[in-house]
Specification:
heterodimer; A: alpha/beta; Helix Hairpins; Pyruvate Kinase, Chain: A, domain 1; five-stranded mixed sheet; about 15% strand; elongated; B: alpha+beta; ATP Synthase, domain 1; five-stranded mixed barrel; 7 strands; about 50% strand; globular
């Protein structure tokens, strides 16, 4: 039977862990509320933006407006040579499977591209993912730490700009983002988004649509589309970060809640063990006293 | 008057969503007005003032920073990077909104917009409210 002192020490340590995890849960809950609010407000804008772009892309595809069907932004390349993969993980751990899910998905994506003999460039946001790939000796093309815990529009613009520029210049043929997004308080949802070129497949061609909904001059359309796509890609990156923060906090909140409950359970069973040990010690002492008295007779 | 739906969205949420009679938007090649039944059009907007005429004939001015407008026959969706509506119940609220608008305007000072005219428009919009 374990020593009384040992058990006592264990109980103390477990309950102090419990205090820490509970505090972390409370912090995450507070942070989640703020992050969720921000994500909710931005979601509408992001959705509308994607809608507008998808519609433009669809119409270009369907109607061959102004010779723009060859525009790089809207043409899917069947056999890309070089692909940018951006993954977003948290900077900190202790959030359950949040980071590892993203990492696994990124690995899967990389493997599937490598199978098709496509070269990839890995661009990482978030310390946890970067550390993982570095440890596994996967080369990182670009990395940012500190952006995923505190999304900042300017920094996120800078980060994605390199990808957009390379795409425009033809160095890369597609840009993917892998991240774990917020679904609700208890679930996260893994997303793999191809932000460039823009998906045109979902849009159905329809004769009823007007032939041209863009402004008349072709050069104008080009300029307009370029700046629109630029904003779209940048905003998508930023929204990804916001969504990811909300998901991170919800994942951490859950993980810490489970940890707190487990610690509680552990303290309970340790207490039982402690009581048993104490009772055993008392019994031994009693027997000693009684047998001492017995022998004096 | 026929009316149509106008939505103005910023990354921080919706700033306007209501039925309106007409809207004047600052396009890149000059201002243009939209009434119900306008032909479909998607165009870029520069920083400037959006004048919204509502059903009760009141006009509301909203300062926007860079945007894109998607116009269809019964709906106009305006996506902007930033916006401030010049409105308020009292003089101080209007003054506060005006101040915010000017701050937003300073942020885009490097754009080629004729800032002075935008600023003057804001002032007059605020003046009407007070």
């Amino acid at each position: 039977m374990a020593n009384l002192k040992d058990i006592q020490r264990k109980i103390k340590s477990v309950s102090s862990t419990q205090k820490t995890t509970r505090a972390m849960k409370l912090v995450s809950t507070a942070k989640l509320r703020r992050a969720e609010e921000l994500a909710k407000r931005s979601r509408l804008y992001a959705q509308k933006m994607n809608q507008v772009l998808a519609e433009i892309a669809g119409r270009i595809e369907c109607n061959k407006v102004g010779g723009l069907e060859k525009n790089r932004f809207f043409t899917s390349i069947d056999n890309p040579k070089m692909v940018d993969i951006i993954f977003v993980t948290a900077d900190k751990g202790l959030c359950g499977g949040f980071n590892i899910q993203t990492i696994k998905e990124a690995k899967r994506l990389i493997a599937s591209f490598q199978n098709d003999k496509v070269k990839i460039r890995l661009r990482g946001v978030g310390k946890k993912g970067i550390e993982f790939f570095k440890y596994n000796e996967v080369e990182m093309y670009d990395e940012v730490v500190g952006l995923s815990s505190k999304p900042n529009k300017e920094k996120s613009d800078d980060f994605i700009k390199a990808s957009i520029d390379d795409f425009i210049e033809g160095k890369t043929d597609a840009v993917y983002i892998v991240y774990n997004g917020y679904k609700n308080m208890i679930t996260q949802e893994l997303h793999v988004n191809r932000i460039l070129p823009i998906d045109t497949e979902e849009f159905e061609c329809n004769d009823a649509q007007p032939k041209s909904m863009l402004e008349i001059e072709a050069e104008d359309e080009e300029r307009m589309l370029n700046s629109l796509v630029d904003t779209y890609a940048k905003y998508n990156m930023y929204y990804t970060l916001i969504d990811s923060v909300a998901a991170e906090h919800s994942a951490r909140m859950q993980a810490m809640d489970t940890a707190t409950n487990n610690a509680k359970e552990m303290v309970k069973s340790l207490n039982v063990e402690f009581n048993k040990a104490r009772q055993a010690a008392i019994t031994t002492e009693l027997i000693e006293i009684i047998s001492g008295v017995e022998s004096m007779k | 008057m026929e009316k149509f739906k106008l939505e103005i969205l910023t990354p921080n949420g919706e700033i306007f969503n209501d039925d309106v009679v007409s809207v004047v938007l600052p396009g890149q090649e000059g201002e243009f007005g939209v009434l119900a039944g306008h032909a479909s059009l998607t165009t870029l907007l520069t920083s400037g003032v959006v004048d919204v005429e509502k059903e009760d004939k009141t006009v509301e001015s909203i300062l926007i920073k860079w945007g894109v407008a998607q116009i269809s026959e019964d709906k106009v969706v305006v996506l902007v990077e930033g916006a401030v509506a010049i409105r308020g119940e009292s003089e101080s609220e209007v003054a506060k909104a005006l101040e915010e608008a000017k701050k937003l305007l300073d942020d885009v000072a490097d754009s080629s917009t004729a800032l002075a005219s935008v600023s003057a428009k804001l002032e007059s919009a605020a003046q009407k409210l007070i």
